[in-house]
Design goal:
Elements (H helix, E strand, L loop, with lengths): L2 H30 L3 H21 L2 H17 L1 H32 L1 H8 L7 H14 L2 H17 L4 H20 L7 H26 L13 H16 L2 H13 L6 H36 L3 H28 L1 H9 L6 H16 L1 H10 L1 H4 L5 H25 L1 H25 L7 H24 L4 H4 L3 H26 L6 H10 L3
Length: about 525
Protein backbone atom coordinates (compact mmCIF):
# COMPACT_ATOMS: atom_id res chain seq x y z
CA UNK A 1 0.00 0.00 0.00
CA UNK A 2 1.36 3.42 -0.92
CA UNK A 3 0.25 6.15 1.48
CA UNK A 4 -0.07 8.85 -1.16
CA UNK A 5 -2.04 6.63 -3.52
CA UNK A 6 -4.37 5.57 -0.71
CA UNK A 7 -4.97 9.17 0.40
CA UNK A 8 -5.53 10.22 -3.21
CA UNK A 9 -8.01 7.39 -3.80
CA UNK A 10 -10.09 8.13 -0.71
CA UNK A 11 -9.77 11.90 -1.11
CA UNK A 12 -10.62 11.87 -4.80
CA UNK A 13 -13.75 9.78 -4.36
CA UNK A 14 -14.73 11.84 -1.33
CA UNK A 15 -14.39 14.96 -3.49
CA UNK A 16 -16.81 13.44 -6.00
CA UNK A 17 -19.18 12.60 -3.16
CA UNK A 18 -18.99 16.15 -1.81
CA UNK A 19 -19.76 17.52 -5.29
CA UNK A 20 -22.93 15.40 -5.45
CA UNK A 21 -23.60 16.39 -1.83
CA UNK A 22 -23.50 20.06 -2.72
CA UNK A 23 -25.90 19.48 -5.61
CA UNK A 24 -28.19 17.69 -3.14
CA UNK A 25 -27.96 20.55 -0.62
CA UNK A 26 -28.55 23.18 -3.30
CA UNK A 27 -31.80 21.41 -4.18
CA UNK A 28 -32.79 21.12 -0.51
CA UNK A 29 -32.05 24.79 0.15
CA UNK A 30 -33.99 25.93 -2.90
CA UNK A 31 -37.05 23.77 -2.15
CA UNK A 32 -37.15 23.77 1.65
CA UNK A 33 -35.30 26.94 2.61
CA UNK A 34 -34.50 27.13 6.33
CA UNK A 35 -37.96 26.66 7.83
CA UNK A 36 -39.94 24.01 9.68
CA UNK A 37 -39.72 21.25 7.06
CA UNK A 38 -35.97 21.71 6.60
CA UNK A 39 -35.33 21.67 10.35
CA UNK A 40 -37.41 18.49 10.73
CA UNK A 41 -35.59 16.65 7.94
CA UNK A 42 -32.13 17.68 9.14
CA UNK A 43 -32.84 16.29 12.60
CA UNK A 44 -34.25 13.10 11.02
CA UNK A 45 -31.17 12.81 8.82
CA UNK A 46 -28.77 13.69 11.63
CA UNK A 47 -29.51 10.70 13.86
CA UNK A 48 -28.58 7.89 11.41
CA UNK A 49 -26.02 10.15 9.72
CA UNK A 50 -24.23 10.55 13.04
CA UNK A 51 -23.74 6.80 13.13
CA UNK A 52 -22.64 6.82 9.50
CA UNK A 53 -19.84 9.24 10.30
CA UNK A 54 -18.88 7.57 13.55
CA UNK A 55 -18.87 4.04 12.08
CA UNK A 56 -17.95 4.45 8.43
CA UNK A 57 -15.40 7.23 8.97
CA UNK A 58 -14.06 6.56 12.44
CA UNK A 59 -15.08 4.34 15.29
CA UNK A 60 -15.69 0.97 13.69
CA UNK A 61 -12.59 1.14 11.50
CA UNK A 62 -10.50 2.35 14.44
CA UNK A 63 -11.53 -0.67 16.52
CA UNK A 64 -11.89 -3.29 13.77
CA UNK A 65 -8.98 -2.59 11.41
CA UNK A 66 -6.08 -3.10 13.87
CA UNK A 67 -7.49 -6.48 14.96
CA UNK A 68 -8.30 -7.60 11.41
CA UNK A 69 -4.96 -6.36 10.01
CA UNK A 70 -3.07 -7.96 12.89
CA UNK A 71 -4.65 -11.34 12.16
CA UNK A 72 -3.58 -11.09 8.53
CA UNK A 73 -0.04 -10.05 9.51
CA UNK A 74 0.35 -12.82 12.12
CA UNK A 75 -0.94 -15.67 10.01
CA UNK A 76 0.80 -15.01 6.71
CA UNK A 77 -0.92 -14.55 3.38
CA UNK A 78 -3.35 -17.48 3.38
CA UNK A 79 -3.64 -18.55 7.02
CA UNK A 80 -3.96 -14.94 8.11
CA UNK A 81 -6.78 -14.30 5.65
CA UNK A 82 -8.70 -17.32 6.91
CA UNK A 83 -8.42 -16.21 10.54
CA UNK A 84 -9.32 -12.65 9.63
CA UNK A 85 -12.36 -13.78 7.63
CA UNK A 86 -13.58 -15.90 10.54
CA UNK A 87 -13.28 -12.91 12.86
CA UNK A 88 -15.15 -10.70 10.38
CA UNK A 89 -17.96 -13.31 10.13
CA UNK A 90 -18.29 -13.37 13.91
CA UNK A 91 -18.33 -9.58 14.14
CA UNK A 92 -20.91 -9.33 11.34
CA UNK A 93 -23.29 -11.77 13.03
CA UNK A 94 -23.18 -10.01 16.41
CA UNK A 95 -23.47 -6.58 14.82
CA UNK A 96 -26.44 -7.53 12.63
CA UNK A 97 -28.61 -9.00 15.37
CA UNK A 98 -27.72 -6.30 17.89
CA UNK A 99 -28.52 -3.48 15.47
CA UNK A 100 -31.74 -5.12 14.32
CA UNK A 101 -32.97 -5.16 17.93
CA UNK A 102 -31.75 -1.58 18.44
CA UNK A 103 -33.62 -0.31 15.37
CA UNK A 104 -36.86 -1.96 16.50
CA UNK A 105 -36.59 -0.41 19.98
CA UNK A 106 -35.85 3.05 18.58
CA UNK A 107 -38.71 2.84 16.08
CA UNK A 108 -41.15 2.12 18.88
CA UNK A 109 -39.67 4.75 21.20
CA UNK A 110 -39.05 7.47 18.60
CA UNK A 111 -41.33 10.14 20.16
CA UNK A 112 -39.42 9.83 23.44
CA UNK A 113 -36.08 9.76 21.61
CA UNK A 114 -36.97 13.04 19.91
CA UNK A 115 -37.75 14.60 23.30
CA UNK A 116 -34.06 14.27 24.05
CA UNK A 117 -32.76 14.91 20.55
CA UNK A 118 -34.84 17.97 19.62
CA UNK A 119 -36.46 19.20 22.84
CA UNK A 120 -37.07 22.68 21.42
CA UNK A 121 -39.47 21.28 18.81
CA UNK A 122 -42.06 20.36 21.44
CA UNK A 123 -43.29 23.96 21.41
CA UNK A 124 -44.43 23.37 17.81
CA UNK A 125 -46.49 20.14 17.78
CA UNK A 126 -46.71 19.95 13.97
CA UNK A 127 -42.93 20.29 13.64
CA UNK A 128 -42.31 17.71 16.37
CA UNK A 129 -44.71 15.18 14.80
CA UNK A 130 -43.12 15.63 11.37
CA UNK A 131 -39.65 15.09 12.85
CA UNK A 132 -40.75 11.85 14.53
CA UNK A 133 -42.35 10.60 11.31
CA UNK A 134 -39.31 11.38 9.16
CA UNK A 135 -36.86 9.90 11.66
CA UNK A 136 -38.78 6.64 11.76
CA UNK A 137 -38.25 6.41 8.00
CA UNK A 138 -34.54 7.26 8.08
CA UNK A 139 -33.43 5.37 11.19
CA UNK A 140 -33.10 1.88 9.61
CA UNK A 141 -30.26 3.39 7.59
CA UNK A 142 -28.20 2.84 10.75
CA UNK A 143 -28.47 -0.93 10.30
CA UNK A 144 -27.42 -0.86 6.65
CA UNK A 145 -24.53 1.58 7.04
CA UNK A 146 -23.10 -0.22 10.08
CA UNK A 147 -22.82 -3.42 8.05
CA UNK A 148 -21.31 -1.38 5.23
CA UNK A 149 -18.72 -0.01 7.67
CA UNK A 150 -17.67 -3.51 8.68
CA UNK A 151 -17.13 -4.46 5.05
CA UNK A 152 -15.27 -1.21 4.51
CA UNK A 153 -12.91 -2.15 7.35
CA UNK A 154 -12.26 -5.50 5.67
CA UNK A 155 -11.49 -3.96 2.29
CA UNK A 156 -9.41 -1.10 3.74
CA UNK A 157 -7.28 -3.61 5.65
CA UNK A 158 -6.58 -5.34 2.34
CA UNK A 159 -5.50 -2.03 0.80
CA UNK A 160 -8.71 -1.69 -1.26
CA UNK A 161 -10.01 1.79 -0.47
CA UNK A 162 -12.03 2.72 -3.56
CA UNK A 163 -15.25 0.76 -2.94
CA UNK A 164 -15.79 2.09 0.59
CA UNK A 165 -14.83 5.63 -0.38
CA UNK A 166 -17.46 5.56 -3.14
CA UNK A 167 -20.38 4.62 -0.89
CA UNK A 168 -21.23 8.25 0.08
CA UNK A 169 -21.57 8.99 -3.64
CA UNK A 170 -24.36 6.41 -3.79
CA UNK A 171 -26.10 8.09 -0.84
CA UNK A 172 -26.06 11.49 -2.51
CA UNK A 173 -27.20 10.12 -5.86
CA UNK A 174 -30.13 8.37 -4.17
CA UNK A 175 -31.13 11.57 -2.32
CA UNK A 176 -30.92 13.67 -5.48
CA UNK A 177 -33.05 11.11 -7.32
CA UNK A 178 -35.57 11.04 -4.48
CA UNK A 179 -36.00 14.80 -4.20
CA UNK A 180 -36.28 15.22 -7.99
CA UNK A 181 -38.43 12.18 -8.76
CA UNK A 182 -40.47 11.43 -5.64
CA UNK A 183 -41.37 14.79 -4.05
CA UNK A 184 -44.76 14.94 -5.77
CA UNK A 185 -45.63 11.29 -5.21
CA UNK A 186 -44.76 11.24 -1.50
CA UNK A 187 -46.41 14.47 -0.44
CA UNK A 188 -43.39 16.69 0.23
CA UNK A 189 -39.65 16.99 -0.54
CA UNK A 190 -38.92 16.14 3.12
CA UNK A 191 -40.72 12.78 2.86
CA UNK A 192 -38.99 12.05 -0.45
CA UNK A 193 -35.60 12.74 1.13
CA UNK A 194 -36.36 10.51 4.11
CA UNK A 195 -37.23 7.57 1.86
CA UNK A 196 -34.15 8.37 -0.21
CA UNK A 197 -31.99 7.84 2.89
CA UNK A 198 -33.68 4.48 3.52
CA UNK A 199 -33.17 3.34 -0.08
CA UNK A 200 -29.56 4.52 -0.13
CA UNK A 201 -28.71 2.19 2.76
CA UNK A 202 -29.87 -0.84 0.77
CA UNK A 203 -27.96 0.27 -2.34
CA UNK A 204 -24.75 0.84 -0.37
CA UNK A 205 -24.99 -2.56 1.32
CA UNK A 206 -25.42 -4.39 -1.99
CA UNK A 207 -22.48 -2.42 -3.42
CA UNK A 208 -20.12 -3.46 -0.62
CA UNK A 209 -21.28 -7.09 -0.71
CA UNK A 210 -20.28 -7.23 -4.38
CA UNK A 211 -16.80 -5.85 -3.70
CA UNK A 212 -16.19 -8.20 -0.79
CA UNK A 213 -16.97 -11.08 -3.12
CA UNK A 214 -14.52 -9.68 -5.69
CA UNK A 215 -11.83 -9.48 -2.97
CA UNK A 216 -12.46 -13.16 -2.08
CA UNK A 217 -13.74 -12.10 1.31
CA UNK A 218 -17.36 -13.27 1.29
CA UNK A 219 -18.83 -12.64 4.72
CA UNK A 220 -21.33 -15.05 6.22
CA UNK A 221 -24.08 -14.40 8.74
CA UNK A 222 -24.51 -16.92 11.54
CA UNK A 223 -25.83 -17.07 15.07
CA UNK A 224 -24.24 -14.37 17.24
CA UNK A 225 -21.47 -15.70 19.49
CA UNK A 226 -19.37 -13.66 21.90
CA UNK A 227 -16.02 -15.16 20.91
CA UNK A 228 -12.81 -13.70 22.41
CA UNK A 229 -12.27 -11.68 19.24
CA UNK A 230 -15.77 -10.23 19.34
CA UNK A 231 -15.44 -9.39 23.04
CA UNK A 232 -12.19 -7.61 22.24
CA UNK A 233 -13.91 -5.64 19.49
CA UNK A 234 -16.87 -4.68 21.69
CA UNK A 235 -14.58 -3.48 24.48
CA UNK A 236 -13.00 -1.06 22.04
CA UNK A 237 -15.76 0.08 19.73
CA UNK A 238 -17.86 1.92 22.33
CA UNK A 239 -15.08 4.14 23.66
CA UNK A 240 -13.64 4.62 20.18
CA UNK A 241 -17.03 5.90 19.01
CA UNK A 242 -16.58 8.74 21.48
CA UNK A 243 -12.85 9.21 21.02
CA UNK A 244 -12.77 9.17 17.22
CA UNK A 245 -16.09 10.92 16.77
CA UNK A 246 -15.93 13.78 19.24
CA UNK A 247 -16.48 16.26 16.42
CA UNK A 248 -19.66 14.45 15.40
CA UNK A 249 -20.83 14.19 19.01
CA UNK A 250 -20.22 17.92 19.38
CA UNK A 251 -22.39 18.53 16.33
CA UNK A 252 -25.19 16.51 17.91
CA UNK A 253 -24.92 18.61 21.06
CA UNK A 254 -25.06 21.65 18.77
CA UNK A 255 -28.25 20.40 17.12
CA UNK A 256 -29.96 19.67 20.45
CA UNK A 257 -29.19 23.16 21.73
CA UNK A 258 -30.00 24.74 18.35
CA UNK A 259 -33.50 23.24 18.58
CA UNK A 260 -34.02 25.60 21.53
CA UNK A 261 -33.11 28.65 19.41
CA UNK A 262 -35.30 30.49 16.86
CA UNK A 263 -36.64 28.48 13.91
CA UNK A 264 -34.05 28.01 11.19
CA UNK A 265 -31.07 27.69 13.54
CA UNK A 266 -30.77 23.94 12.91
CA UNK A 267 -30.75 24.59 9.16
CA UNK A 268 -28.15 27.38 9.39
CA UNK A 269 -25.76 25.08 11.25
CA UNK A 270 -26.46 22.18 8.90
CA UNK A 271 -25.69 24.14 5.73
CA UNK A 272 -22.59 25.76 7.27
CA UNK A 273 -21.31 22.38 8.36
CA UNK A 274 -21.91 20.97 4.88
CA UNK A 275 -19.53 23.52 3.38
CA UNK A 276 -17.02 22.96 6.17
CA UNK A 277 -17.22 19.21 5.63
CA UNK A 278 -15.71 19.48 2.13
CA UNK A 279 -12.08 19.93 3.23
CA UNK A 280 -12.70 17.91 6.39
CA UNK A 281 -14.04 14.94 4.43
CA UNK A 282 -11.60 15.13 1.54
CA UNK A 283 -8.47 15.66 3.67
CA UNK A 284 -9.18 14.54 7.23
CA UNK A 285 -11.14 11.40 6.50
CA UNK A 286 -8.84 10.43 3.61
CA UNK A 287 -5.66 10.79 5.68
CA UNK A 288 -7.13 9.06 8.73
CA UNK A 289 -8.53 6.18 6.66
CA UNK A 290 -5.25 5.58 4.84
CA UNK A 291 -3.01 6.13 7.87
CA UNK A 292 -4.63 3.73 10.35
CA UNK A 293 -3.94 0.41 8.57
CA UNK A 294 -0.47 1.68 7.60
CA UNK A 295 0.46 2.51 11.21
CA UNK A 296 -1.11 -0.72 12.47
CA UNK A 297 1.02 -2.83 10.15
CA UNK A 298 4.22 -0.83 10.75
CA UNK A 299 3.85 -1.03 14.53
CA UNK A 300 2.90 -4.70 14.41
CA UNK A 301 6.08 -5.36 12.42
CA UNK A 302 8.19 -3.42 14.96
CA UNK A 303 8.94 -0.55 12.54
CA UNK A 304 8.60 2.30 15.02
CA UNK A 305 10.71 4.76 13.01
CA UNK A 306 8.73 4.13 9.85
CA UNK A 307 5.50 4.70 11.80
CA UNK A 308 6.84 8.00 13.17
CA UNK A 309 7.80 9.10 9.66
CA UNK A 310 4.33 8.21 8.36
CA UNK A 311 2.70 10.20 11.20
CA UNK A 312 4.83 13.29 10.47
CA UNK A 313 4.16 13.18 6.74
CA UNK A 314 0.42 12.73 7.34
CA UNK A 315 0.43 15.78 9.64
CA UNK A 316 2.39 17.80 7.10
CA UNK A 317 0.06 16.83 4.25
CA UNK A 318 -3.04 17.57 6.33
CA UNK A 319 -1.87 21.01 7.42
CA UNK A 320 -0.67 21.95 3.95
CA UNK A 321 -4.18 21.50 2.55
CA UNK A 322 -6.28 22.41 5.57
CA UNK A 323 -4.82 25.66 6.90
CA UNK A 324 -5.27 27.58 3.61
CA UNK A 325 -8.77 26.11 3.21
CA UNK A 326 -9.73 27.29 6.69
CA UNK A 327 -8.37 30.79 6.13
CA UNK A 328 -10.16 31.09 2.79
CA UNK A 329 -13.51 29.88 4.16
CA UNK A 330 -13.32 32.33 7.04
CA UNK A 331 -12.61 35.26 4.70
CA UNK A 332 -15.08 34.51 1.89
CA UNK A 333 -17.80 32.71 3.90
CA UNK A 334 -20.62 34.95 2.68
CA UNK A 335 -19.98 34.75 -1.10
CA UNK A 336 -19.44 30.99 -0.84
CA UNK A 337 -22.75 30.54 1.00
CA UNK A 338 -24.60 32.89 -1.34
CA UNK A 339 -23.43 31.15 -4.50
CA UNK A 340 -24.06 27.64 -3.20
CA UNK A 341 -27.39 28.11 -1.44
CA UNK A 342 -28.72 31.64 -2.05
CA UNK A 343 -31.67 30.93 -4.31
CA UNK A 344 -35.34 29.93 -4.13
CA UNK A 345 -36.64 29.71 -0.56
CA UNK A 346 -33.15 30.39 0.86
CA UNK A 347 -33.09 34.20 1.07
CA UNK A 348 -30.50 36.85 1.98
CA UNK A 349 -31.10 36.61 5.76
CA UNK A 350 -30.56 32.85 5.57
CA UNK A 351 -27.33 33.39 3.64
CA UNK A 352 -26.00 35.87 6.21
CA UNK A 353 -26.89 33.63 9.17
CA UNK A 354 -25.32 30.55 7.56
CA UNK A 355 -22.17 32.44 6.51
CA UNK A 356 -21.60 33.64 10.08
CA UNK A 357 -21.73 30.03 11.32
CA UNK A 358 -19.45 28.89 8.50
CA UNK A 359 -16.78 31.45 9.42
CA UNK A 360 -16.84 30.21 13.01
CA UNK A 361 -16.63 26.56 11.97
CA UNK A 362 -13.74 27.38 9.61
CA UNK A 363 -11.50 28.54 12.45
CA UNK A 364 -11.70 25.02 13.87
CA UNK A 365 -11.18 23.22 10.55
CA UNK A 366 -7.44 22.49 11.01
CA UNK A 367 -8.19 21.07 14.45
CA UNK A 368 -10.90 18.76 13.08
CA UNK A 369 -8.44 17.37 10.55
CA UNK A 370 -5.63 17.07 13.12
CA UNK A 371 -7.94 14.94 15.26
CA UNK A 372 -8.46 12.59 12.31
CA UNK A 373 -4.70 12.46 11.76
CA UNK A 374 -3.62 12.05 15.40
CA UNK A 375 -6.27 9.52 16.47
CA UNK A 376 -4.72 6.64 14.45
CA UNK A 377 -1.62 7.06 16.62
CA UNK A 378 -3.71 5.70 19.51
CA UNK A 379 -5.93 3.25 17.66
CA UNK A 380 -3.04 1.58 15.81
CA UNK A 381 -1.56 0.85 19.28
CA UNK A 382 -4.98 -0.47 20.37
CA UNK A 383 -5.37 2.32 22.94
CA UNK A 384 -8.97 3.50 23.15
CA UNK A 385 -9.03 4.63 26.78
CA UNK A 386 -6.97 7.79 26.33
CA UNK A 387 -9.00 9.30 23.46
CA UNK A 388 -12.16 8.63 25.47
CA UNK A 389 -10.86 10.57 28.45
CA UNK A 390 -9.82 13.43 26.20
CA UNK A 391 -13.13 13.44 24.36
CA UNK A 392 -15.13 13.59 27.60
CA UNK A 393 -13.21 16.70 28.67
CA UNK A 394 -13.83 18.29 25.26
CA UNK A 395 -17.53 17.42 25.28
CA UNK A 396 -17.95 19.10 28.66
CA UNK A 397 -16.09 22.18 27.41
CA UNK A 398 -18.25 22.27 24.29
CA UNK A 399 -21.48 22.01 26.29
CA UNK A 400 -20.45 24.73 28.75
CA UNK A 401 -19.39 27.07 25.95
CA UNK A 402 -22.63 26.37 24.09
CA UNK A 403 -24.68 27.40 27.09
CA UNK A 404 -22.56 30.53 27.61
CA UNK A 405 -22.44 31.67 23.98
CA UNK A 406 -25.91 30.72 22.70
CA UNK A 407 -27.47 33.71 24.46
CA UNK A 408 -25.44 36.57 22.98
CA UNK A 409 -24.51 34.90 19.66
CA UNK A 410 -27.39 32.43 19.04
CA UNK A 411 -26.41 29.71 16.54
CA UNK A 412 -23.01 31.33 15.83
CA UNK A 413 -22.10 30.83 19.48
CA UNK A 414 -22.72 27.12 19.02
CA UNK A 415 -20.31 27.02 16.06
CA UNK A 416 -17.66 28.92 18.04
CA UNK A 417 -17.96 26.45 20.93
CA UNK A 418 -17.50 23.52 18.55
CA UNK A 419 -14.36 25.06 17.05
CA UNK A 420 -12.80 25.78 20.45
CA UNK A 421 -13.46 22.27 21.77
CA UNK A 422 -11.96 20.78 18.59
CA UNK A 423 -8.72 22.71 19.12
CA UNK A 424 -8.60 21.52 22.72
CA UNK A 425 -9.13 17.94 21.58
CA UNK A 426 -6.35 18.11 18.98
CA UNK A 427 -3.94 19.74 21.45
CA UNK A 428 -4.55 17.10 24.12
CA UNK A 429 -4.18 14.22 21.63
CA UNK A 430 -0.86 15.62 20.44
CA UNK A 431 0.41 16.35 23.95
CA UNK A 432 -0.24 12.83 25.26
CA UNK A 433 1.32 11.21 22.19
CA UNK A 434 4.37 13.45 22.60
CA UNK A 435 4.78 12.62 26.29
CA UNK A 436 4.66 8.91 25.49
CA UNK A 437 7.31 9.30 22.82
CA UNK A 438 4.86 8.31 20.09
CA UNK A 439 4.90 11.72 18.41
CA UNK A 440 8.16 13.52 17.73
CA UNK A 441 7.77 16.35 15.24
CA UNK A 442 10.72 16.20 12.87
CA UNK A 443 12.68 19.22 11.65
CA UNK A 444 11.05 19.11 8.24
CA UNK A 445 7.52 19.39 9.65
CA UNK A 446 8.46 22.30 11.93
CA UNK A 447 10.20 24.19 9.14
CA UNK A 448 7.41 23.57 6.64
CA UNK A 449 4.74 24.78 9.05
CA UNK A 450 6.38 28.20 9.48
CA UNK A 451 6.76 28.56 5.71
CA UNK A 452 3.16 27.39 5.22
CA UNK A 453 1.87 30.01 7.68
CA UNK A 454 3.61 32.76 5.69
CA UNK A 455 2.03 31.51 2.46
CA UNK A 456 -1.42 31.38 4.07
CA UNK A 457 -1.03 34.93 5.39
CA UNK A 458 -0.21 36.17 1.89
CA UNK A 459 -3.17 34.33 0.40
CA UNK A 460 -5.53 35.76 3.02
CA UNK A 461 -4.42 39.32 2.29
CA UNK A 462 -4.93 38.72 -1.43
CA UNK A 463 -8.51 37.48 -0.87
CA UNK A 464 -9.36 40.43 1.38
CA UNK A 465 -8.01 42.81 -1.27
CA UNK A 466 -9.72 41.20 -4.29
CA UNK A 467 -13.19 40.40 -2.87
CA UNK A 468 -14.54 44.01 -2.89
CA UNK A 469 -13.75 44.32 -6.60
CA UNK A 470 -16.04 41.35 -7.33
CA UNK A 471 -18.94 42.59 -5.20
CA UNK A 472 -20.91 43.72 -8.25
CA UNK A 473 -20.64 40.30 -9.83
CA UNK A 474 -21.80 38.55 -6.64
CA UNK A 475 -24.93 40.74 -6.73
CA UNK A 476 -25.62 39.93 -10.41
CA UNK A 477 -27.14 36.88 -12.13
CA UNK A 478 -26.36 33.23 -11.53
CA UNK A 479 -23.63 32.91 -14.16
CA UNK A 480 -21.73 35.97 -12.92
CA UNK A 481 -21.99 34.87 -9.28
CA UNK A 482 -20.53 31.46 -10.09
CA UNK A 483 -17.80 33.04 -12.24
CA UNK A 484 -16.92 35.50 -9.46
CA UNK A 485 -16.63 32.73 -6.86
CA UNK A 486 -14.57 30.57 -9.21
CA UNK A 487 -12.31 33.55 -9.89
CA UNK A 488 -11.91 34.29 -6.18
CA UNK A 489 -11.10 30.67 -5.37
CA UNK A 490 -8.72 30.47 -8.32
CA UNK A 491 -6.86 33.59 -7.19
CA UNK A 492 -6.56 32.21 -3.67
CA UNK A 493 -5.22 28.89 -4.93
CA UNK A 494 -2.76 30.55 -7.30
CA UNK A 495 -1.41 32.94 -4.68
CA UNK A 496 -1.02 30.19 -2.09
CA UNK A 497 0.66 27.82 -4.56
CA UNK A 498 3.09 30.53 -5.68
CA UNK A 499 3.95 31.60 -2.14
CA UNK A 500 4.21 28.00 -0.90
CA UNK A 501 6.71 27.28 -3.66
CA UNK A 502 8.61 30.53 -3.05
CA UNK A 503 8.85 30.00 0.71
CA UNK A 504 9.59 26.27 0.38
CA UNK A 505 6.43 25.15 2.16
CA UNK A 506 5.92 22.40 -0.43
CA UNK A 507 8.10 20.89 -3.15
CA UNK A 508 7.52 18.32 -5.91
CA UNK A 509 10.04 16.07 -4.16
CA UNK A 510 7.51 15.68 -1.32
CA UNK A 511 5.68 13.12 -3.41
CA UNK A 512 8.73 10.86 -3.25
CA UNK A 513 8.72 11.08 0.54
CA UNK A 514 5.11 10.04 0.72
CA UNK A 515 5.78 7.11 -1.60
CA UNK A 516 8.74 6.12 0.57
CA UNK A 517 6.50 6.19 3.64
CA UNK A 518 4.12 3.85 1.92
CA UNK A 519 6.82 1.43 0.76
CA UNK A 520 7.85 0.92 4.39
CA UNK A 521 4.47 -0.71 5.02
CA UNK A 522 4.75 -3.27 2.27
Amino acid sequence: MILLRSIATVGGLTMVSRAFGFLRDILIAALLGAGMMADAFFIAFKLPNLFRRLFAEGAFSAAFVPIFAGLIEDGGKDGGKDAARAFADQALSVLLWFLLALVIVFELAMPWVMLGFAPGFTDEPEKFALTVELTRITFPYLLFISLVSLMAGVLNSLGRFAAAAATPILLNVCLIGAIVGLSGALGSPAHALAWGVFGAGIVQLLWMLAFCLRAEMPLRIGLPRLTPGVRRLIRRIVPVAIGAGVYQVNLVVDMVIASLLPSGSVSFLFFADRINQLPLGVIGVAVGTALLPLLARQLHAGEAQAAMHSQNRALEFSLLLTVPAAAALAVIAEPVTAVLFGRGAFGAPDVAATAAALAAYAYGLPAYVLIKTLAPGYFAREDTRTPVMISVVCLVVNLVLNLILMGPFLHVGIAIATAVSAWLNAALLALVLKRRGHLVLDARLKSRFVRMALAVAGMTLALVFVEPYLAGWFAAGEAKRVAALAGLVGIGLAVFAALAAAFGAARPSDLKSLRAAGRAAK
